[in-house]
Amino acid sequence: MYIKLFGKSRKSISFDWVKDRCGIDYKLSDADKIRFTGGKDHTLCFKNTGYATIVKGNQILKRERKYSLCYGEKIVDF
Asked: Which of 8, 15, 48, 77 has its CA 20 to 30 A from that of 55?
């Protein structure tokens, strides 16, 4: 699935929106509180304002802080 974030009228989209749009059958109680935006140099930025624990590599990411992902990087929740 391809989602264009640059030039969108929305400032951000939620993980809840992405999983619904892509038909992903995954339960996450705070999926609407994980927001994605386009960043500098076409990076993907996200911010978790909910209570999901998000991990990037071997690092647990803090809530209420904006992070960027480069091509090929992944995040998971626990």
From this structure: 8
